[in-house]
Design brief:
Helix 1 packs across helix 4. The longest helix is centred in the C-terminal third of the chain and has 29 residues. Strand 4 and strand 5 form a beta hairpin. This protein is α+β, with helices and mostly antiparallel strands. It has 4 helices and 7 strands; from the N terminus they run E-H-H-E-E-H-E-E-E-E-H. It has a 7-stranded antiparallel β-sheet, with helices on one face.
Length: about 160
């Protein structure tokens, strides 16, 4: 299943990047969906190429019943992001991989922070797949809206965070 989202934030790419690697912001977005930020680590300097590892526990209350039967009341999600150094215009790209403990799902996405004047266009494109024979497509199809919303929360909350901090 394909993921696709785009939003524009009236702040520079460097400010948006700084929010996306702010542990307090990540805790806020985790708690916003009823989850918990378990751990967060940055490897490298966010001024150049770097990577992050974010581990969250999230409730499954919004998942279809068929999916909850397999995974239980909560999921532990590990999000790995590998960020490229800024381009000449300041734009950035990160490759995102989600691993969901106990769920037969693989999520991979590319997030682009595109410099657009004084604003940043956040573009997200990715896929959700499942390795379960015969049922994999249905599992991925059921999970895709939830995964898409989870990844997009960061983008939509960034503007509010920047305006209040």
């Amino acid at each position: 299943m394909a993921l696709s989202a785009s939003t524009t934030v009236p702040h520079s790419v460097d400010r948006v990047t700084a929010v996306f690697v702010n542990e307090d912001f990540l805790r806020h977005t985790s708690e916003l969906v009823g989850g918990t930020l378990e751990s967060f680590a940055v490897d490298g300097d966010p001024a150049g190429a770097f990577s992050t590892t974010t581990v969250r526990t999230v409730p499954t209350t919004r998942m279809p019943d068929v999916a909850r039967k397999f995974v239980g009341a909560s999921l532990t999600v590990t999000q790995l992001e590998t960020w490229d150094a800024p381009a000449d215009d300041g734009s950035r790209q990160s490759n995102i991989s989600l691993k969901i403990a106990g769920a037969p799902l693989d999520v991979s996405a590319v997030q682009r922070l595109v410099s657009d004047g004084g604003s940043t266009r956040i573009e997200l494109e990715g896929t959700v797949t499942s390795s379960v024979p015969f049922l994999g497509g249905k599992i991925a199809e059921a999970a895709e809206p939830m995964v898409g919303k989870a990844l997009n929360i960061q983008s939509t909350q960034a503007q509010a965070w920047l305006e209040s901090h």
